[in-house]
Amino acid sequence: MSSQDRTGSRRTVAKVTAIAAAGTLLLTGCSEEVQRGWLPNVVKDTTNHTGAIQELWVNSWIASLIIGLLTWGLMLWCIIAYRRRKGDEGYPRQLSYNLPMEIFYTAVPIVIILAFYSFSNSVQHKIDAPVDSPLVIDVRAKQWAWDFNYKYEGEEKYFAGVQAHLDGTEGTKEKLPTLYLPVNVPVTFELNSRDVIHSFWIPAFLQKLDMIPGKTNHIYLTPQTEGTFDGKCAELCGEYHSEMLFNVKVVSEEEFKQYLATLPDGQIGEEYDRKPDVVNSTTQGEGE
Ligand SMILES: [Cu+2]
Question: In this structure, which residues have their CB less than 5 angstroms from ion ligand 1?
Answer without folding.
Answer: 198, 233, 237, 244
